[in-house]
Amino acid sequence: MLDLKIAYIALPLIIAMIYSEIFLYKKRGLAFPHQEAWVSVGMTIIFQIVTRVTAPFMSSINRHVFELRPQTIGMDRVWHWVALFFLVEFFYYWQHRAMHGIRWGWASHSVHHSPETITFSGAYRLSITQMLSLIFIFFFPIYAMGFPPEAVGLVYSLNLMYQFWLHTALIPKLGWFEWIFNTPSHHRVHHAINPIYLDKNHGGVLIIFDRLFGTYQEELASEPCRYGLVGRERSLNPLKIFFQEWVSLVRNLGQAESLRDIYLITLGAPGEFAKVKQQRAALRDGSSSPVQESA
């Protein structure tokens, strides 16, 4: 669904912003994470190659869903585009929230959260297994309403393009703009692994749905953001970053003892099965140590 033409058109601006950020880091005497940035660039290239291969298949699926529409939205009026913008933003919010709350989705989305710094170069560190995670199904209702896949793809791509500038630590809070729109401050919270910040601020262009549905969190001066993946060591190996969560998921499936375990491993929240394993191990240790129990 991503419109690659939009990405290519914006490429000069993206490159200029990345180099500007590097310059500002140097000017302010800050250490820029060059290694991590180059890994992100390499992973972005791999993502683009994979996307070009999978795009026809995705377009075919979206077109089939579009064929089920009871009507066709002609996209010949301004309100059609305004409605589509809000629909894409709404379903993107729930897609994004699900990728954080469902492990099957997190196995892909975790790739984007793997950098331990937040810079423009990491904005498009995206997973090559998004199709496997089935995240595209969240936009099916828009096609079924009668909005053409080409229009949805365009608006979705522009939504992602907007999010590029959110990935930086150099832009401070932006006053009244913070109340309605997603900003670098809001998105730093989204990427942070501090307990108070986990799974917050899922919006794309707007922050209003986070405010409405209880997932908004302000960036606090008293709680500086820390980045990376909870429980994962930093890696500069693209293959490991792309697949480490899938490998962990498959290993956990081999440890499943019930259908409930399989559900938790695949559709439960990330970390939920690990908690169950810990509780189970504690019970077994306790039951096998009667002396400790009576102490």
How would you describe this structure to a colleague?
It contains 13 helices and no strands. Helix 3 packs across helix 6 (149-163). Helix content is 59%, strand content 0%. Residues 288-295 have low confidence and may be disordered. The protein has 295 residues and is mainly α. It folds into two domains: 4-238, no CATH class; 255-294. The chain has helices at residues 4-27, 34-66, 78-101, 103-109, 140-145, 149-163, 177-180, 184-191, 208-213, 238-254, 259-266, 272-287, 290-294.
Helix content: 55-70%
Shape: globular
Number of structurally distinct domains: 2
Please tell me the overall pLDDT: 92
Order of helices and strands: HHHHHHHHHHHHH
Strand content range: under 5%
Reported for the largest beta sheet, the result is: none
Low-confidence spans: pLDDT under 50, at least 5 residues? Answer: 288-295
Number of helical stretches of at least 4 residues: 13
- What's the total count of β strands? 0
Distance between the termini: 61 Å
* CA gyration radius, whole angstroms: 21 Å
Structural class: mainly alpha
Quickly list its features.
mainly alpha; globular; 0% strand; 2 domains; disordered C terminus; 295 residues
Tell me the layout of helices and strands:
Blueprint: H1 4-27, H2 34-66, H3 78-101, H4 103-109, H5 140-145, H6 149-163, H7 177-180, H8 184-191, H9 208-213, H10 238-254, H11 259-266, H12 272-287, H13 290-294
Helix pairs in contact: 1-6, 3-4, 3-6, 4-10
Task: State the gist of this model.
The protein has 295 residues and is mostly helical. It is built from 13 helices and no strands. 59% of the residues lie in helices and 0% in strands.
